[in-house]
Amino acid sequence: MKQLTLIGFMGSGKSTTGQMLSKELGIPLLELDQMIEEETKMSIPDIFDLKGEAYFRELEHIVLIKSLNSRGVIATGGGILTNSKNVEQLKSTRNVIYLKGKDSTLIERIKNDSVNKRPLADTSTELEITKRLENRVNQYEEVADIIIEIENKSISEITLEIMNQLEEMKE
Ligand SMILES: Nc1ncnc2c1ncn2[C@@H]1O[C@H](COP(=O)(O)OP(=O)(O)O)[C@@H](O)[C@H]1O
Ligand SMILES: O=C(O)C1=C[C@@H](OP(=O)(O)O)[C@@H](O)[C@H](O)C1
Ligand SMILES: [Mg+2]
């Protein structure tokens, strides 16, 4: 296994599942938000505050392209498909996995996450988050090669399910 890409809404577990997958598969984790933070030496909320979303999206595109040329587990950010160039890129990429969850689960995880700050969700109402999700779901489904339902599954169960599905695809 050379490369796989995790997509899905904020809170679906792309970063944490990505970390476990990279360990299990013995390939690097390419966490796009983390790469942006390292390159800019700024936090995600500071980039949004001081430079704006458009600037963040440009950086996100650059680190995605860089990662797609590398071996590893790519953990994208939930807004990766807001850029149509990224949609085209990922449509022609193999092993794109959509972590699909219910809005109530995603909202609960976003609200309870004390580690990651999410400028496009933390100060939003539940209705606003649900609307943002509704605007994005079709694209996640369109781009994905594999859809994994995350409800009531642990991170290890999801990791195992992804590894099994990838094995099946090879056969
Ligand atoms: N399968 C899971 N079961 C329980 N909690 C989870 C699961 N996946 C992720 N989480 C928790 O949800 C929060 C968001 O996870 P994260 O990996 O940052 O999501 P994303 O990168 O998709 O926004 C974190 O607090 C994480 O520990
Ligand atoms: O959905 C989005 O637009 C975003 C999702 C975040 O990543 P996670 O999906 O890992 O939380 C991060 O890239 C940024 O806050 C914007
Ligand atoms: Mg993440």
How does the SSE layout of this entry go?
Elements: E1 3-7, H1 14-25, E2 29-31, H2 32-40, H3 44-50, H4 53-68, E3 72-75, H5 84-91, E4 96-100, H6 103-112, H7 126-143, E5 146-149, H8 155-170
Parallel strand pairs: 1-3, 1-4, 2-3, 4-5
Care to describe what's here?
The chain is α/β, with parallel strands linked by helices and 171 residues long. The chain contains eight helices and five strands, in the order βαβαααβαβααβα. The mean pLDDT is 96. The site of magnesium ion has 5 residues, from α1.
Primary descriptors:
single chain; 171 residues; alpha/beta; Rossmann fold; 5-stranded parallel beta sheet; 8 helices; 5 strands; binds adenosine-5'-diphosphate; binds shikimate-3-phosphate; binds magnesium ion; metal-binding; Shikimate kinase; magnesium ion binding
Please identify which CATH superfamily we are dealing with.
Answer: P-loop containing nucleotide triphosphate hydrolases
What's the Cα radius of gyration? 15 Å
3D shape: globular
Number of helices: 8
